[in-house]
Specification:
Length: 145
């Protein structure tokens, strides 16, 4: 009878993990605005991501926030070195009085990202809002606690 052993490798330590290239390229703090089609309304937004793997939250690569939306998880659906598709939410939208999701489809060129977005009520096919977005990587700053 042959000896069989189950071997479960230990996962690498969090400090040994490195961000894949597309995630690393999007790491940092981004500040920008969304321009809503039809109305031309400009909505400022922030994307936040620490570059360390210790800042990772399972399933999220950034946190998205606007003046009406508290920091909400953003999940990467597709990414290459210069293009990405990401899903924000679901999050509560006071304007719609419902949980919504926003999809960003964009490109990254150095310190700038831009592209289009659309927002839908969760589990509903009709688009509530769509438009264009652009953001630049904010300079890192040191903040005292």
């Amino acid at each position: 009878m042959p000896n069989e052993y189950a071997f479960t490798p230990l996962p690498p330590s969090r400090s040994a993990m490195r961000l894949p290239a597309p995630l690393g390229a999007l790491a940092g703090n981004w500040r920008g605005e969304m321009i809503i089609d039809g109305t031309g309304e400009r909505v400022p937004f922030t994307l936040l991501r620490d570059q360390s793997s210790d800042a990772a939250v399972a399933g999220r690569f950034l946190f998205f926030a606007t003046r009406d939306v508290p920091p909400t998880g953003m999940k990467l659906l597709e990414a290459a070195n210069s293009v990405f598709v990401a899903l924000v939410g679901p999050y509560y939208c006071p304007r719609e009085n419902a949980d919504v999701m926003t999809v960003f489809e964009g490109t990254r060129d150095g310190q700038r990202i831009e592209g289009s977005f659309y927002t839908r009520v969760q589990n509903w096919r009709n688009t509530l809002r769509s438009g264009q977005f652009s953001a630049t990587r904010a300079a890192s700053s040191t903040r005292a606690a």
